[in-house]
Amino acid sequence: MSDNTLTTQSGADQKEGPIVRFLRATEVDTRMLGMVGALLLIWIGFHLYGQIFNGFGAFLTSRNLWNLSVQTSSIAVMATGMVLIIVTRHIDLSAGSLLGVTAMVMGVVQVWVLPEMLGLNNPMIWIITVLVGISFGAAIGALHGFLIAYMGIPAFIVTLGGLLIWRGSAWWVARGETIAPVDSTFALLGGGPFGTIGATGSWIVGALAIVGIAALLLMGRRQRVRFGFPLRPVWAEWTLGLVGSGLIVASVLVMNSYLWPKGVVRRYAEANNITVPEGGLEISHGFAIPVLIAITVGIFMTFLVTRTRFGRYVFAIGGNPEAAELAGINTKRMTLMIFSLMGGLVGISAVIASARLNAATNSLGQLDELYVIAAAVIGGTSFAGGIGTIYGAMLGALVMQSLQSGMVLVGFDSAVQQMVVGGVLIFAVWLDTIYRRNSV
Amino acid sequence: MTDTATQVDAIDRSGTPLIEMKDISIAFGGIKAVDHASVDLYPGEVVGLLGHNGAGKSTLIKILSGAYGRDTGQIFVRGEEATITNPRHAKDYGIETIYQTLALADNVDAAANLFLGRELLTRWGTLDDAAMEDETRRVMGRLNPNFKKFKEPVKLLSGGQRQSVAIARAIHFNARILIMDEPTAALGPQETEQVGQLIKQLKKDGIGIFLISHDIHDVFDLADRVSVMKNGQVVGSASTKDVTKDEVLGMIILGKCPPGATPGPGASTD
Questions:
Q1: Bond before B145 cis per omega within 30 degrees
Q2: With an 8 Å Cβ cutoff, are B86 and A440 in contact?
Q3: Distance (Å, rounded) from C-alpha B163 to C-alpha A224?
Q4: Rounded distance, CA B68 to CA B84, Å?
Q5: Biggest CA-to-CA distance, chain A
Q6: Beta strand pairing status for B177-181 and B208-213?
Q7: DSSP string of A279-311?
Q8: Do B87 and A326 touch (CB under 8 A)?
Q9: A287-341 pLDDT, tens per residue?
């Protein structure tokens, strides 16, 4: 095995510069590095812009980064599903509207229906509500999938129709009423000071994540050894592990350094009979629950895509639908399942979005579909089909949300925001075209 | 040629055929793509299915491989009537197909294509990629020892390499009946020779092969028998030792059945 390592290294030494050699050894996706670069550029750019023109750089503060993480969650969850849809050469334009109607249905269920049946603040309310939301989304998604796969209507049309139908239904569910406040446990799923896991919890999650990274690297290496496949040099494995762990520690530190506002601390102290010491009580936010939900969904979807038959078939269909069909894959059923999965994910996003707002309104999720599509595309999902990654789409969601909230922070008005987002979407697809032309 | 002739004699056609397609018809809109066609295939036999583009040979064979459902007719596999309404059924009967377009998913690697639809799983039900790659390395080592690109998406492979992936996929799962649709159309002379060698080897294992082509030269030397189609109908069938290439050309172009052949419903009457 060491032979393999040696030949790659010494062969590379002569022709390639240090950067190319580094990339080859670590097997890092160059595209992902580009995305990280763009992200840093956006973050630092907005921070400096704020500092220079507004006298205050608000972007790179723990408060803003914490908010950013919560805002990204809802888009990131839907983006993971959008990857599968775009990979199989379809599109879903209805995600935002479906989110709206699902949030309204959940609002009705938890505020109007369940309290009457179970009594107010029954601990089952939020569980039933979440299940209803995910099932409702999955059912509507399955309906889309059925129309696309079995009725032969293009996904563009079905979901364009859905965009209007579900936005209309969102209004119709409660005749345009805003349903608030939502169940108090349910509200925690959207973040807010109480919807977090605190400093200790965040360190535990961070530690688990580092153990996970180490385990993945180790298992990957062992697998390669067992079948005699080429190995990464040991220094590259260490670099990957250390960079990954460093990022995790950094994010824990940032999330923990955002403290509860004074008012919230006082109310919390009063409610729990704690005397606030001299100089104030410092309570950290830590990771918000929606962020943990999004990360869990991301891990689940990555597993689904890379380790199961379902995922393999999604990519095979995207690469060559005819070949997949001839290999005996039931492509129609797959399409139905993919859209149903997307609907379920929209249901999860609806939980996050309405819990965060602490209300269900019929305009919730407007234009979300565009952010979701943009996130997937920026993250490397190709409209030609067959190519895309879950982590890319989630990172893409972070890029889109950074742009959006950065523009809000520095005071661009919504007209400019829309123009920029539209421009970025077109630019990302153009960049993707160039990238693919040069890489193959 | 003497070599081929002895092989032709060796084929035993007294038993039940591996495959018997009887009176198959299918129409797309008003066009009868296949019109009461009957063909059969015996173990260890190579039957060339010839005809112009649009003669109906690919359509007939797609019915056998389960890609199209037939309107009328019956299919018998080893004497028993078979229900084949999708590609999975055909595979269950040991019928494997190598399509003209190769039908590979371009964006995934050789192992993923080889096992597409029949993935190896770990005991937790997840994909066993390492085992599949290992198996693929072994199969490809036999078929095409020069094949090295196991991690690349197959779209980065040459025509011959793609062809060997397609062939590996067809024979890896104990195929009894192999359908090859224009197997050498995309290949250079050397690769064509390799495919020829492979066909002879498969014959020895008792596998029946349908070889489909519009070019008689691709098929004549490899086939034991030919069946010629024209306008969706079978012009006739003949043992390659009873007819000449020119006579077969006459069947393809004019639909004229020579004395050495058994005429079908499509033979011209004048």
A1: no
A2: no
A3: 28
A4: 9
A5: 75
A6: parallel
A7: T----B--SBHHHHHHHHHHHHHHHHHHHSHHH
A8: yes
A9: 999 999 999 999 999 999 999 999 999 999 999 998 998 888 999 999 999 999 9
Residue of chain A whose Cα is closest to the Cα of B102: A323
Residue A7 confidence (pLDDT) = 39
Terminal CA-to-CA distance of chain A, rounded, Å? 29
ipTM of the complex: 0.78
- Are A354 and A106 contacting, i.e. CB atoms less than 8 angstroms apart? yes
Residue A16's pLDDT band, with cuts at 50, 70 and 90, is low
The single-letter DSSP state of residue B188 is -
Both tokens of A115, joined, read 């309290």
CA quadruple A13, A17, A19, A20: dihedral, nearest 10: -70
Length reported for chain B: 270
B34, B162, B158: which is closest to B100 by C-alpha?
Answer: B162
**Residue A327, helix vs strand vs coil:** coil
Position A14 pLDDT exceeds 60: no
User: B19: helix, coil or strand?
Assistant: strand
Q: Which residue shows structure tokens 């309290």?
A: A115
> Under an 8 A CB cutoff, do B127 and A312 touch?
yes
For residue B207, CA distances in Å to B13, B94, B95 come to 14, 10, 10
Q: Cis omega (within 30 of 0) on the bond before A277?
A: no
What is the C-alpha to C-alpha distance for residues A181 and A188, in angstroms, rounded to an integer? 12
- Which burial class, exposed, middle or buried, applies to B89 when counting CB atoms under 10 A from its CB (0-12, 13-18, 19+)? middle
CA distances from B174 to B85, B142, B202 (A): 21, 15, 11
Quick: pLDDT tens for B123-171: 888 998 888 988 898 888 877 777 888 888 888 888 778 888 888 888 8
Residue A421 makes CB contacts below 8 A (sequence gap 6+) with A370, A371, A374, A400, A403, A404
Do the chains contact at B134 and A227, CB–CB below 8 Å? yes
Q: Which residue has the higher pLDDT, A309 or B14?
A: A309
How far is the alpha carbon of B77 from chain A, nearest alpha carbon, in Å?
A: 19
Name the interface residues of B facing A (CB cutoff 8 Å): 65, 67, 86-88, 91, 97, 99, 101-108, 112, 116-119, 121, 125-127, 130, 133-134, 153, 155-156
Provide the whole-model pTM.
0.86
